[in-house]
Amino acid sequence: MSTSRLYNVVGINFDHMHMGDLLRQVHEHPGARLVGIADQSRERMASTVAAFGLTEDQVFTDWQLCLETTKPDIAILCPKTAEHGQAVVEVAPYQTHVLVEKPFAATLADADRMIAAMAATSKTMIINWPLAWYPPHVTTKRLIAEGTIGEVLEVHYYDGNRGPLRHIADKVEITEEEANRQKSQAWWYQREAAGGSLQDYLGYGVTLGTWFLDGRKPLEVTCVTDNKPGLEVDEHSIMVCRYASPYGLSKFETRWGTFTDPWTLQPQPKCGFVVLGTHGTISSYDYEPVIRLQTRERPETHEVPVDTLAPGWRNPIEHLIHHLETGCALHGPLDPALCRIGQQIVDSAVLSARERRTVTLLGE
Ligand SMILES: OC[C@H]1O[C@](O)(CO)[C@@H](O)[C@@H]1O
After folding, report:
1. Ligand 1, from 14, 15, 16, 17: best to mutate by most atoms within 8 Å of Cβ?
2. Is this structure's pTM higher than 0.95?
3. Which of 45, 137, 161, 240 registers the highest number of CB atoms within 10 A of its CB?
4. Domain range enclosing 184
5. Which of 65, 99, 128 is the last residue in one of the domains?
């Protein structure tokens, strides 16, 4: 997409393997230029340096020096979940737009610190949820907004993968043996780093779920997590939200240990969403070329091809630049205001699982 100018972009902190995917989007955008990357470990940056032909002066082990030297328009941040709050608080004073890779934060308090830090600048922050770019879910939201299934009453969500250590950037596969060897070292498996399937995947479900529910907040949250011997974090969580009448119960399940990875072969249960409205239902599964619709007029479940994403609305890099160029509203799930409701639900789920009871939604 053509732009009025070139946007200089940096990538800071390679904890999440999606950094590689995001930098590829920068590389492929004619209006964006990758001007620097920073991480404590040169080794973790090596494949990016090779893939995008970066020069030595564009590679930093000190993120502050990276920002001071390159003065970017956009900083992509992929730290471990527990460090999202601190990272944004520290980067915001450099007056750069910020893309934080999912999830929003480890806690609502961190999310609020991030929002406050960015509010003190004139810059934009987006939280990127890769699921927000899957055509089935975008199509589902469009049909909901057009009233095709009436008012949404229930959201059912199941998602995850075989585990965070079974793939690296660009979904390159890692063997089960190698993944098991890495478990004890990896931040994904550390409670202190906000690891675990709930922190990794519940935000996806409740952020897109709240988008489908038009910003509606639940009253109460009940969550149960598994408890595998030898692991500090969960690999499976099941959560129920209760909404005020006439909205019923919605449920959100996260799993590291699906039978197959959804991007290769959909496992059963299928990864994605089922949405029930007053006039119809939709099933919207990750990566599928169709969604399945049922309405009062046509009650037999039928396939609807997914939408082709519009230019400017195809991935987070393109979208952030499109937003900066045109002032268009942010894609719903990337907007911190909507993500904050998701974070309220995640915090409530963590508390519920810990105390083994139903809790009232946390936060204002
Ligand atoms: O589980 C680790 C990670 O794997 C993905 O499913 C795909 O890369 C991410 O959405 C998640 O954060």
Report:
1. 17
2. yes
3. 137
4. 132-311+342-360
5. 128
